[in-house]
Write a structure and sequence with these properties.
Blueprint lengths: L2 E5 L5 H13 L4 E4 L10 E4 L5 H29 L5 H7 L1 H26 L1
Antiparallel strand pairs: 1-3, 2-3
Length: 121
């Protein structure tokens, strides 16, 4: 019976690809499920053979530890070099989108407060 190994919700494409390559290179049989057309299903990597689960978990654990160290080191290096992406950088990259999203948020807050004050008065 199939057993879930790795949920792909909020996982970056590069991490998902590295997990696929890890499993393939270690001859672990797996298949993937997607979030579906409406995004309501669970995207995940499943093992087809339960007997490979412990080995796959151990490999995945080692991979995730190594990846966490690598990502932290990369972030620290970018921060030291002043190249890490900040909130201000994101605004500068797409000011129109930021302004639009901010305006919508302010509108929602305004309408919510107005509704409450109108109902109270």
């Amino acid at each position: 019976m199939a057993k879930i190994l790795f949920r792909l919700t909020d996982v970056s494409d590069d991490e998902a690809q590295e997990v696929r390559e890890l499993l393939t290179s270690n001859a672990i049989d797996f298949y993937e499920t997607s979030a579906g057309n409406w995004g309501v299903s669970m995207p995940a990597i499943w093992l087809t053979d339960d007997s490979q689960f412990e080995r796959a978990r151990a490999l995945l654990g080692a991979y995730q530890s190594a990846r966490a160290i690598r990502i932290r080191e990369e972030y620290a290096r970018l921060k030291r070099e002043g190249k890490n992406k900040t909130f201000q950088d994101a605004i500068k990259e797409n000011p129109v989108s930021f302004t639009l999203h901010l305006a919508v948020a302010v509108l929602v807050i305004y309408l919510s407060v107005k509704l409450v004050t109108d109902l109270a008065g």
